């Protein structure tokens, strides 16, 4: 008769909890190679990450690129989002690919006043991406939102800032705050 190997291994913690290592339910041989060193083996995490918002609407200058006032951190891990300077700085040793997700609102002070809106991010003080454009020259509106969702390659120390541009036919333009401004980023596991 043949022998049968266990399909899983259970490791019990010193005081509580347990970890189960299970073999895949597929034919063939699979190998897990552990490093030849002491210490902890960690599973990849999408850190650092953050989610920032604007606590209020921001009055901006018409026909001018303006840095968005992302001043509130909803949550973060492995990074301290700079609410004073409204930017994300890649922490030391954390260069790599990052997912950026941005939802940003624009508004005029009255109906049928918004002509155009643009959204972009800056890398180390330089515009990298023109981003989305909304052009309403044929039919002015009151408000809209634009989004950026993309993967960017960043190095430790790189700084990301968000800028918007709005052109209104009259009145005072603004970037919309609570509920209309959301910026999150996280490092991808590669």
Short note summarizing the structure:
The protein is mainly beta and 190 residues long. Helix content is 0%, strand content 47%. Strands 3, 4, 6, 8, 12 and 14 form a six-stranded antiparallel beta sheet that branches. Strands 5, 7, 9, 10, 11 and 13 form a six-stranded antiparallel beta sheet that branches.
Write structural notes for this entry.
With 190 residues, the protein is mostly beta strands. The chain is built from no helices and 14 strands. The chain has strands spanning 8-12, 18-22, 49-53, 58-59, 66-67, 72-77, 88-89, 96-107, 114-123, 126-127, 133-135, 143-154, 159-168, 174-187. The strands form 3 sheets. Strands 3, 4, 6, 8, 12 and 14 form a 6-stranded antiparallel sheet that branches. Strands 5, 7, 9, 10, 11 and 13 form a 6-stranded antiparallel sheet that branches. A hairpin with a 2-residue loop joins β9 (114-123) and β10.
**Overall average residue pLDDT:** 89
Structural class: mainly beta
Number of strands: 14
How many DSSP H or I helices? 0
Distance between the termini: 44 Å
Outline the low-pLDDT stretches.
Answer: none
Oligomer description: single chain
Shape: elongated
What is the ordering of alpha helices and beta strands? EEEEEEEEEEEEEE
Strand content: over 45%
Query: Whole-number radius of gyration?
Result: 24 Å
Sheet with the most strands, sense and barrel status:
6 strands, antiparallel
């Amino acid at each position: 008769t043949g022998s049968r190997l266990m399909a899983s291994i259970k490791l019990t913690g010193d005081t509580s909890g347990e970890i189960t290592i299970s073999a895949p339910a597929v034919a063939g041989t699979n190998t897990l190679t552990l490093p030849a060193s002491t210490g902890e083996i960690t599973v990849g995490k999408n850190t650092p990450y953050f989610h920032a918002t604007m606590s209020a609407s921001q009055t901006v200058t018409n026909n001018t690129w303006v840095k968005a006032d992302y001043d509130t951190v909803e949550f973060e891990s492995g990074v301290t989002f700079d609410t004073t300077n409204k930017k994300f700085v890649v922490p030391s040793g954390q260069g790599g690919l990052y997912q950026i997700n941005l939802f940003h609102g624009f508004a005029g002070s009255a109906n049928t006043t918004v002509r155009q809106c643009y959204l972009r991010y800056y890398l180390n003080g330089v515009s990298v991406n023109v981003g989305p454009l909304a052009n309403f020259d044929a039919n002015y509106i009151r408000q809209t939102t634009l989004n950026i969702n993309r993967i960017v390659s960043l190095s430790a120390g790189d700084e990301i800032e968000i800028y918007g541009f709005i052109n209104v036919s009259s009145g005072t333009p603004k970037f919309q705050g609570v509920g209309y401004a959301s910026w999150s980023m996280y490092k991808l596991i590669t």
